[in-house]
Amino acid sequence: MGGGLSRHELAAAVSDARGLGTIAVNGAGAIRRELAAARALTGRPLAVNVLLPFSRRDWFEAAAEADVVVTFWGQPRRRTGGVWLHQCGSVEEAQRAQAAGADGVIAQGVEAGGHVRGTTPALELLERVRAALPAGYPVLLAGGIAGRDDARAALEAGASAAVAGTRFLLTEESRAHPAYKQRLLAAEETILTELFGAGWPAPHRVVANSATEHWLSGRRSSLGRIRRSKDERREVRGPLTNRALNHVLAPGTRYLPDTLQARMIRAQRPDSRLLTPAGPTDDAPATLVDAGALYAGETVARINEIRPAADLVRELAG
Ligand SMILES: Cc1cc2nc3c(=O)[nH]c(=O)nc-3n(C[C@H](O)[C@H](O)[C@H](O)COP(=O)(O)O)c2cc1C
Predict the structure, then answer these.
(1) Is residue 24 lining ligand 1, measured as CB closer than 6 Å?
(2) Residue 140 confidence (pLDDT)
(3) Cα-flanking dihedrals φ and ψ of residue 82, to 5°?
(4) Coil, helix or strand for 81?
(5) Which residue's CA lies nearest to atom 21 of ligand 1?
(6) Is residue 286 within 8 Å of residue 294, measured between CB atoms?
(7) How far is the C-alpha of 99 from the C-alpha of 112, rounded, in Å?
(8) What is the DSSP letter of 221?
(9) Confidence band of 17 (pLDDT split at 50, 70, 90)
(10) HSE (CB half, 13 Å, CA atoms) of 227?
């Protein structure tokens, strides 16, 4: 979980309990620091996640020191000599990753939290990806996994492993802002949107806050597509002007110096037209809880308590 929501505390706790913990931070220095801090806590394997739209060469040099590198959102290309997994949202993307030499793929379903590449339910995508790739090729499953039954269903359907994000956001070790965690505990539903797309115009799943209330409620004429699929999955892309601006400005916004990006995040308010994808970490301005993206997957409706990560790993694997 990117932007520093998952750092050494969470990754080490998950790995130490015999899951594979993943660090997701921006910048080569931060990757090295978090990996070293996690190594000090556990001798078990660790993963580093790299978001391809933002990555730079030195991020990969730092990430290659992890046992596993997981990439997401972009043209799959081998950038490490070690184990490489690529998270995919379609059969075609999984085939491209396999052809590019990925050691395995993560099939991400549309129910997932954070940025959502998948457009079909996870188990459906799993079946199609497995059918399209050679027998025995590792296909992991992400999206909708929060408890033992979910993990078991994924493995029974042929997944090599179960991947969970949202459930681990609500742990003692995750670096989500405490108020963000409380909002998720209270949430009953999610919205798939493109609202928080400044610098990264891509669909993401969030729970409602003041920013979504401001931009996505009662403005139907300018919202773009509003869709409720047959199973009532809510999808509201956001006002056309915001989305157009996000697309036009993305290359510039993405490469702003860190200090300017930090200023944009500090200045972000629920009614800002440019809403960055920065998640409310516990060291981010508290204003982001209402002005930023409260990323969460559909399992949020079933999660009612914050728990230690190790307990969850044991439950999921049980
Ligand atoms: C808060 C949050 C942040 C995320 N950030 C990233 C990220 O930086 N990189 C990535 O590959 N996936 C990211 N994801 C997606 C996860 O890798 C995974 O697909 C998703 O969490 C699975 O669905 P679930 O949330 O239902 O468990 C994020 C998910 C959440 C909930």
Answers:
(1) yes
(2) 98
(3) -95, -160
(4) coil
(5) 165
(6) no
(7) 25
(8) G
(9) very high
(10) 10
